[in-house]
Specification:
- There is one protein chain.
- The longest helix is centred in the last third of the chain and has 17 residues.
- This protein is an alpha+beta fold.
- The N and C termini lie far apart (52 Å).
- Among the domains are: 45 residues; 101 residues, Enolase-like, domain 1, CATH 3.30.390.
- The chain is 30% helix and 21% strand.
- The strands form 3 sheets. The protein has a 5-stranded antiparallel β-sheet with strand order 4-5-8-6-7.
- Helix 5 packs antiparallel against helix 9.
- The site of flavin-adenine dinucleotide has 31 residues, from strand 2, helix 2, helix 6, helix 7 and strand 8.
Length: 327
Amino acid sequence: MRDFSYQQADSVGAAIKAHATDKDSAYIAGGTTLLDLAKLEVMRPAKLVDVRKTGFDEIERLDDGRLRIGTNVTNTDLAYHEDVQKHYTVLSEALLSGASTSIRNKATTGGNVMQRVRCSYFRDNVSPCNKRNPGSGCSAIDGFNRSVYAVLGTSKHCIVAHPSDMCVAMAAIGATISVQGPNGQREIDFLDFHLKPGNTPWKEHALDADEMITHVTLDAPIEGAKSHYLKLRDRASYQFALASSGVIVAVDGGVVKQARIALGGVGTKPWRAHNAEQALVGQPIDQANFEQVAKLAFQDAQAYEHNAFKIPLGQQAIVRSLTTVTA
Ligand SMILES: Cc1cc2nc3c(=O)[nH]c(=O)nc-3n(C[C@H](O)[C@H](O)[C@H](O)COP(=O)(O)OP(=O)(O)OC[C@H]3O[C@@H](n4cnc5c(N)ncnc54)[C@H](O)[C@@H]3O)c2cc1C
């Protein structure tokens, strides 16, 4: 592991200033992604700017019904918050399906949004990888591309899936990410924050230089809707998703009035299945309709040598989560 300097910031302004003074700075929160990658020398920050004393550690219901979450709120506190358990079940379930209790106690909201991919070629620090070493190639495309590789949103330069469970739930709910940087504050729609790899897989998110996340604000809950997160994985705990489905559905008289469907483990970003949602609205709740929309969600999927099973698995995740939430 290389030497680096460490600075604890006591305000967002101080954090941004400290970050902007060194080219190779990185913000650090819980450290559960960053320190692993620094030890592997995949991330090589010259300076760590600790944001945990900058505030932003509260969850607040706004007058318009939205829920504002400070970047430093831990995954545990968010998962067990009364409002989240009651009105955003999909988020609580997604958080509690991730990592382990001790990691969730340290991991923060902003850190989870910004977590890096779990591709073994990215993390081994040796294999060609366009994310780590732009232009070097993607070892996963012709390599072992099973568990953490995507079938939606891939490109010829990168095929790794986005690893977060929390972000899948937020993509389903709808949210805004507030950021602050040298040029002031701005807001980014959650669905625009994570980027598909395209021709620039090393560019993973919409943050500009030195910008820091301060909040994630969830859209107001859909009245009368129920929600659920289903995560399918190789073992029942402490494992990333092979495929997951976060759904929010409002039903009236046996007919779907509103639907949100987001997918994890199968997309290069937290994946919102808009076409499947649109097809579900107005339909009676029955298995055949769920199967139909699940197929639609994967109509543009591209499988690789070892991950073709993710297409039927992802479809099953949608069918099962819709069945559960409408039961
Ligand atoms: C063994 C293991 C298993 C895991 N399993 C799962 C799982 O099943 N599901 C899942 O979803 N996740 C899983 N994770 C990932 C875990 O959720 C993330 O490591 C965690 O959420 C990151 O949060 P953190 O606060 O520790 O971030 P850090 O490690 O501190 O930072 C992560 C990244 O975010 C940046 N960052 C942090 N805060 C800010 C900010 N305010 N503004 C801008 N940038 C910021 C950092 O610079 C860094 O690039 C697992 C992790 C481990 C180690």
